[in-house]
Design goal:
With about 325 residues, the protein is an alpha/beta fold. The protein has ten helices and twelve strands. The structure holds zinc ion.
Length: about 325
């Protein structure tokens, strides 16, 4: 007999159910030609409306508990945002409230109150580079040829590849150098400030740990990795007066960006669960300290419904 394409029992809730955890980062009011992959407010509005109408959006902590107990309700889903961008407060929060939804916001506390994440330093460097050759003094890298948007996109992709796994001190040095070169063009308010973080929690949203400086844990020695995890949890709980219960591994690829020792550290630090960036859905037998997530990029209601169905109901036996 032919195997059915979907296991509809996974959509019915209970012991067979899978938990989709959606992963968002930034949300922009309009398209940024240098960052076309980022969510737009109007797309997020449609996605949240669809989730509110057709699914049951649960706080992540509650959903993971119910998943482990085999009591997940039908069509459950949880929403997460990573990093602590100001647009999470300015744009995503009102959209969540409009649709009566909750989310968990994973915040790298070292960038709050005027900091700039390394990726954004690179984006703004390429955006503001004058036409001509751009030499950033990177080893084994030719100067970039900067002219139209295509050349800037190519330069940005190359730069991101070159620096992604630089060690922490080299990244920090390069980031400082590029920010100094940007001068007045350096972004000042990309990330939230303390008050905006508190506004999220007062609105009923959850806050999660994401390390202090967003360094890739696998690239740090164990003492530094522990300090990154612990200091971030301390800062966020002091800021909000709440214990921080969920953690997201920076960059989040299992085995590449974090290892078993970091999973153990997250448990030791007192977190109740953690999420990765491995693409998939949570199952009852999966570790609650390595919950997979996925990005919902679909821009139509039908697309959102099909993607959610495909992720939660397929493949059989997964
Ligand atoms: Zn992140």
């Amino acid at each position: 007999m032919a195997r059915p394409i979907f296991s509809l029992s996974k959509l019915a809730g209970g012991p067979q159910a899978a938990l989709p955890v959606l992963m968002y980062h930034r949300v922009l009011p309009e398209v940024d030609p240098l960052q076309e992959g980022l969510h737009l407010a109007r797309t997020m509005d449609m996605q949240f409306a669809t989730l509110a109408r057709c699914f049951k959006v649960l706080p992540l902590d509650e959903a993971i508990d119910l998943l482990a107990e085999g009591r997940l309700p039908p069509r459950a889903v949880s929403i997460t945002f990573d990093d602590g961008y100001r647009d999470n407060h300015d744009i995503a929060l009102p959209l969540l409230q409009r649709h009566g939804l909750t989310a968990t916001f994973y915040v790298s506390s070292g960038f709050l109150n005027g900091g700039t994440m390394f990726h954004d330093v690179m984006v703004e460097t390429i955006r503001h580079a004058p036409t001509g050759q751009l030499d950033l003094g990177l080893a084994d890298t030719q100067p970039f040829e900067i002219s139209d948007i295509r050349s800037r996109l190519a330069a940005l992709a190359c730069l991101v590849r070159q620096v992604k796994y630089l060690d922490a001190s080299h990244r920090a040095e390069l980031s400082e150098r590029l920010l100094a070169a940007l001068g007045a063009k350096a972004p000042q308010h990309l990330m939230m400030d303390d008050d905006q973080v508190r506004t999220l929690t007062r609105a009923g949203m959850s806050l999660g740990g994401h390390t202090t400086r967003h360094l890739i844990l696998a690239r740090l020695d164990d003492a530094k990795a522990w300090e990154e995890i612990r200091s971030n949890a301390d800062t966020l709980s002091t800021l909000t007066g709440h214990a921080i219960t969920s953690f997201a591994y920076p960059n989040g690829k299992p085995g590449t960006d974090y290892g078993p020792q970091h999973v153990e550290m997250v448990q030791r630090a007192g977190f109740a669960n953690a999420v990765s960036t491995h693409s998939g859905v949570g199952t009852r037998t999966a570790s609650r300290f390595e919950m997979p997530r996925f990005v919902l990029n679909e821009t139509s209601v039908a697309g959102v419904l099909m993607r959610m169905l495909r992720m939660t109901a397929y493949p059989i036996g997964a």
